[in-house]
Write a structure and sequence with these properties.
Strands 5-6-7-8-9-10-11 form a 7-stranded parallel β-sheet, covered by helices on one side. Strands 3-2-1-15 form a 4-stranded antiparallel β-sheet, sandwiched between helices. The chain has a two-stranded antiparallel sheet with strand order 4-13. It folds into 2 domains: 5-116 and 361-368, 2-Layer Sandwich (Enolase-like, domain 1); 122-342, Enolase-like C-terminal domain (TIM Barrel, Alpha-Beta Barrel). It has helices spanning 60-71, 86-89, 97-115, 119-122, 143-155, 171-180, 199-203, 223-229, 245-253, 270-283, 296-305, 355-361, and strands at 5-21, 24-38, 41-47, 130-132, 134-137, 160-164, 186-189, 213-214, 236-238, 259-262, 287-289, 329-330, 340-342, 352-353, 362-368. By secondary structure, it is an alpha/beta fold. The radius of gyration is 20 Å and the shape is globular. Helix 1 packs across helix 3. Strand 2 (24-38) and strand 3 form a beta hairpin.
Amino acid sequence: MRVDSAVLRHIKMPLVHFFETSFGRTYERDIILVEAFSDGASGWGEVTAGENPFYNEEWTASVWPLLRDYAIPPVLHRELGSARDVTPLNAHIRGHNMARGGFEAAVWDLEARLHGVPLHKQIGGGARREIPCGVSIGIQDSVPQLIEKIELELAAGYQRIKIKIKPGWDIDVIRQVRERFPAIKLMVDANSSYTLADAGRLKQLDEFYLMMIEQPLAHDDIIDHARLQARLQTPICLDECIRSARHAEQAIQMRACGIINIKLGRVGGFAEALRVHDVCQAAGIPVWCGGMLEAGIGRAHNIALSTLPNFTLPGDVSASRRYWKRDIILPLVETTARGTIAVRDGPGFGYAIDHDFLRSITVREETVS
């Protein structure tokens, strides 16, 4: 396989409702898409970087020059044994996993389409025909508003509820939620908003029998998470600080967590995500697929990733309509009444591109050849 060229597209998509974390509120997504071409076929990738460098060092404006000038050129016109060869060709680039991962995912999708097989089969997945789904609910203006949103999501069939927390929006909020919903699968996500000095406060979360506490401490820390996990009954799930399979190995060796969240962009694409998955599976550490407010292409990639056997917990892969009035794929991603998404078997990621809508929301486009 040779990648002949790639097209970058910058699109703008307003969210149905704002999404708030400890980083702030998001009302509209600026997303960079990558389309890779070979032999008359094309594959699609989505860069999951946010509008600001708060989740990690990347942001939308940083992605374009990184892809155009550094990540794509070394791959073009080379004979590739498989999509796995993309990552070594970009290994000299420090960080910028989301930019590199968006392009790498496009090449995996391209390879699957050239072979006429589903993306989930191309990556070695397909262990399940339906993906169990959870939802992530951002910080709300009030607890009653939060409870109302939880009721709506449970009525839609979602199997797990994740609530964003931060200092001042944590213990009392979760207590009220647990009183209202004593039996649901519930977890919290702190997005690195606490320190080890807050261990006593975080220990209070043990009383609410949560599935996990996601990334309570610093985005680049494993050692303090190990110290915190030793004091908690509730499993810690690591997110931001796991950028590679080696990080996963270190965290597991130090007993810094009981669960790991795999985000395709955070680890730099499918090749590294597969390695993280395998490390965790060998150690008996369950994984699940996290979300980054993806449009349809990134959502479809997450579905494919979630078919791997060790994705045993409901992920943040949910229906398109939770976030978008109209998505860039057809049909929309939908959930069943039992809170699952059916895996599609078309070539590549399994959905069609809504080209008319895509053109209407594209604010910039450039070919790299």
